[in-house]
Each structure stands twice: as C-alpha cells, then as structure tokens.
Amino acid sequence: MNLAVYTKSLSDSRRGLVGWMLGTAGVGMMYASTYPSQKENTASLPAALRESLHVDATAAGYLQASVFGLILPLLAMVYGAATGSRAVAGEEESGQLDLVLAHPLTRTRLVLQRFAALATGAGAISLLVWLALLAIRDSAELTSVTAAELLAQCVNLALLGIVFGAFALGLGAAFGRRTVVLAGTAAIGILAYTVHTFAAQIGADRLAYFSPFHHYIGGQPLRHGFQWADTGILAATAGVLVALGTWRFARRDINT
Fold first, then answer.
1. Cα 153–chain centre separation
2. What pLDDT sits at residue 219?
3. Rounded to whole angstroms, how far apart are CA atoms 25 and 126?
C-alpha cells in the first residue's frame, strides 16, 4: 500500500482542492487590493480618533486586521474541519471504511496518510495565497511587507488549517461520527478565536497562549517574519491531536 491512500485521497479531492485554492487566493487578493482606498479613508480621520480606535494604517496592520485576521483563518478552519471530518468519520458513516481496511493496511497508516493529504492541501492553498498576494503587492501598495514576511504568515495560515484539520480527523477517528466532529470543531474554533480576541481585554493575557490563533498571528509575522516558537507550537499541536486520535482509532470497535 505504501502511499496509495495518500495519493488516492489527493486524487479524489483534486477538484475540491483546486476550488479551495482559487477561492481562498481570490478572497485574499480582493481584500488586500483595497488597501490604498482604506489607507486614504483612514488618513482622513482625526489623529485623536485614530489613536483612540487603535487604527493601524500600515500595510502590515491592514493585512493583519482584514485579510489574515478574520476571513482567511476562517476559511482555513473550515477547510480543515471539512477535510478532517471526511477522512475517517465520513467514510465510517457511509460504510466504506470497512472496504478500505480490508486491504493490507493498518489503521495507523490510514490515519497518517489521510492527515498527510490534508496537510498537503492546506499547504497548497496557502502557497497560492502567497503567490497571489505577491502578484498584487506593488499595485496594492503593500511593498512595506516583504515577500518573506508574507510567506511567514502564509505558513502559519497553513498550520492553522492543519491544526483544525488534525482536531477534526482525530475526533472522527476517536468517535466515528461526522456530526460530532463538525460540532466539536466549530465549538473549539469559536472558543479559540474568542480567547485570542478578548483575553487581553479581560486581563487574562496568558490565557491567549492556549489558543492556536495566538500562535498563528500573535507574533505578527507580517512585521517580524517567521516566529519559530509559534510555528513549532502549531506543528506540535497538530501532531499531538493526530496521535491521540490514531491511538483511540486503533483500539476501538468500528461499526460500519
């Protein structure tokens, strides 16, 4: 079997993956291209008002707030949840999982290869986002953000999608019910984003470190480039989630 499950997963999802790549990159380009007009609107505000609202009119500040701060991480989370929930739980509910496991394939290898396909997809989506933003960087007046800084944020975007994909895949491997997976992933995603957004406002700054969104964007890669500690934490989190799901999957009865 070697990498048969991995290649088959990518082949079966190729149309959907192309759609995710083009759609996500297109959304990123659309929002990023409005920076010149947004900068003019911001400049027209009184300085006192800008200061009170903590408005950051720089290219990095705009990208962090409007492009990488909400819409793209939301899309990454949805991609991870949808792909991860199908990887095991979707096939188990449809009754196809027993046919896959009838081949000389261990459960561990099945989960790991499905996860590798998910991670490849997340990486491909983020790569196209990076290339798309580079293509409009000059015309959108984003040259103050270097290509390396954009790449650092896009790598974190891929890792964010992988973390939520790992959570969904692990949850599906552990329980085998896609509704449970989607509901659980959505709940954790909302909780994680809320913690990241409001922890500082309620005087619980340290709580934000438990949110993957903090490690995704809290280190401001668009200003400072790669933050290797945050990148490592995101990667390690995904690995732990997949490992736990795989451990449970290898030990439970499968009702197909």
1. 11
2. 92
3. 8
Q: With contact defined as beta carbons under 8 Å apart, do 182 and 256 qualify? A: no
**Tell me, what's the pLDDT at 53?**
44
3-state secondary structure (DSSP) of residue 241: helix
Residue 47 is predicted with a pLDDT of: 55
User: In degrees rounded to 5, what are phi and psi of residue 68?
Assistant: -90, -5
What is the rounded distance in angstroms from the CA atom of residue 237 to the CA atom of residue 103? 30
Which residues, 6+ apart, have CB-to-CB distance to 189 below 8 Å? 77, 81, 164
Supply the pLDDT for residue 126. 97
pLDDT at 43 (0 to 100): 55
Question: From the first residue on, what is the mean pLDDT of each consecutive set of 10 residues in the chain (256 residues)?
Answer: 84 93 96 85 54 66 90 95 88 75 82 94 97 95 94 97 95 84 91 85 80 93 95 96 90 70
Q: Is the pTM of this model over 0.85?
A: yes
Cβ 193 vs Cβ 211: under 8 Å? yes
Smallest Cα–Cα separation from 109: which of 159, 161, 167, 173?
173
Q: Outline where 66-217 has alpha helix (H).
A: 72-85, 91-94, 97-101, 107-136, 147-175, 178-198, 212-217
Q: Nearest-CA neighbor of 149 among 30, 60, 66? A: 60
Residue 25's closest CA among 145, 148, 136, 190? 136
- Count of C-beta atoms within a 10 Å radius of residue 116: 16
Place of tokens 């009170």: 52
Distance, CA of 74 to CA of 27 (rounded, Å): 12
Distance, CA of 131 to CA of 164 (rounded, Å): 23
Residue 71 in tokens:
């819409």
